[in-house]
Amino acid sequence: MFVTFTRLFFLLLVGAIAFKVWQILGSKDNSLIARLLFILVLVLIVSALISPDSQVGLVVLGILSIFFRPLGLSILLLLIASIFIKNGKIDKPGPTLILIALLILILASTPVFANWLAQQVEKVALKTVQTDLCCGERAGAIVLLGRGTTEPKLPYRKQIQLTDTGDRIPYAAQLFRQDRGPFIIVSAGPRQELINPIIEANDVKQLLIYMGIPPERIL
C-alpha cells in the first residue's frame, strides 16, 4: 500500500512538473534548445522507470531518490513555488506549495512519523527476503554469518560477549533445534583489529556449544 501510494504520488508530481515546465518553455522567451533538453530529461526519467536495473536507470533513480526524502521534496516544492513569484507577488498555487513544504518538514521531524516510515520499509523488506521454510522442509545446512557478532576476547574479559548483531547466534541454535538443518556452518574470519588475530568463528562455536548444539554439527 505504501509503495503503491508513493509511486502514484511520484507520477502525479512528475506529470504536474512536466506540464508546468512545458508551459513555461512554450513562451517566446525560451529557445528550442531548452525544449529539447527538457524532452531529453523526460525521456531519461521514463527510461529509468521502465528499466530501473539498467545503468541509466540506476543513475537517474539515484538522483530522483533525493526528492523522495522529506528535505529534498520540500526543497523541490519551494523551487516550484518560486516560479510563480512575479513582480514581488506570488500567484497560486505558490502559497499552497510553500505551506505543503513546511508541513512536510514539520511532520517528518516528529518521532511518530519516523517510526511509522521505518515500519513501512521493514514490512516491505520482510516480504522481500522472507525465508521461512514451510511444511517441515529442511535445508542442507544452516549458515550463520557470524562476523561481528561477538566482542574481541580480551584478557580482562572472563566470558564471550555479544554485539548488537549477536542475536543471530541463538536464532541459528533455535533453527537447529527445530530440525531445520543437520549442520550449522559458521562464517567468521580472523579479528584484524587485534595484534594477534584469532578466528571469531571459534568463539561463535563455543557459544553454540553452550546452547546445546553438538560440536560435530558445527562447521
Please tell me about this protein's structure.
This protein is mainly alpha-helical and 219 residues long. It is built from eight helices and four strands, in the order ααααββααβαβα. The chain has helices at 2-25, 32-50, 55-64, 70-83, 94-108, 111-128, 168-177, 200-210; strands spanning 85-86, 89-90, 142-145, 184-187. A two-stranded antiparallel sheet has the order 1-2. Strands 3-4 form a two-stranded parallel ribbon. The model has no long low-confidence stretch (mean pLDDT 78).
Percent helix, as a range, is 55-70%
Identify low-pLDDT runs.
Answer: none
Q: Would you tell me the structural class of the helices and strands?
A: mainly alpha
> How many distinct beta strands?
4
Please state the overall shape, judged from the principal axes of the Cα atoms.
elongated
Number of helices: 8
Biggest sheet: strand arrangement: 1-2
Radius of gyration: 27 Å
Could you say how many structural domains there are in total? 2
Order of helices and strands: HHHHEEHHEHEH
Instruction: For the record, give the distance between the C-alpha atoms at the N and C termini, rounded to a whole number.
Output: 42 Å
Q: Summarize the main sheet.
A: 2 strands, antiparallel
Strand % is: 5-15%
Average pLDDT reading:
78
